[in-house]
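Customer escalation, tier 2.

The customer says the design service returned an amino acid string that "doesn't look like it belongs to this structure." They asked us to rerun it and document both sides in this ticket. The original structure tokens are below, unchanged.
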């Protein structure tokens, strides 16, 4: 099977906060749930969560980097979803909606520098 990924991925698990609006982007109230980021790239993030989001769902995700203490908020969209091992967990491909925030690039460069030293 051919590799579909466009960007290099950093495999580092981190807790992610997901904000979503069940009635659409302008609806209230917003809901919050949590996920585990399995890997992060310049184009998006792969998440593991117990909440199902249909393809096309708009989300706001908050990533944090443990070493630098950076917090990154980014608008994103669900691109693909699949069940992960059980019916209670879902793996999702999330694509950033806008140009990647500089803080995500910084987070990735920081991680790559640490790998080079190892």
């Amino acid at each position: 099977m051919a590799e579909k990924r466009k960007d290099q991925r950093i495999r580092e698990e981190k807790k992610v906060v997901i904000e979503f609006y069940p009635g659409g982007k302008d609806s209230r109230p917003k809901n919050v749930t949590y996920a585990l980021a399995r890997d992060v790239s310049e184009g998006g993030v792969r998440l593991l969560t117990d909440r199902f989001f249909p393809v096309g769902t708009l989300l706001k995700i908050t990533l944090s980097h443990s070493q630098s203490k950076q917090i990154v908020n980014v608008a994103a969209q669900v691109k693909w979803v699949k069940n992960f091992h059980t019916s209670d967990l879902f793996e999702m491909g999330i694509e950033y909606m806008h140009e990647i925030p500089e803080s995500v690039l910084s987070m990735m460069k920081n991680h790559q520098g640490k790998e080079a030293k190892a």
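Tier 2 assessment: The sequence is consistent with the input. The mean pLDDT is 78. The first helix runs from residue 102 to 117. Sent an explanation to the customer and offered a walkthrough call.
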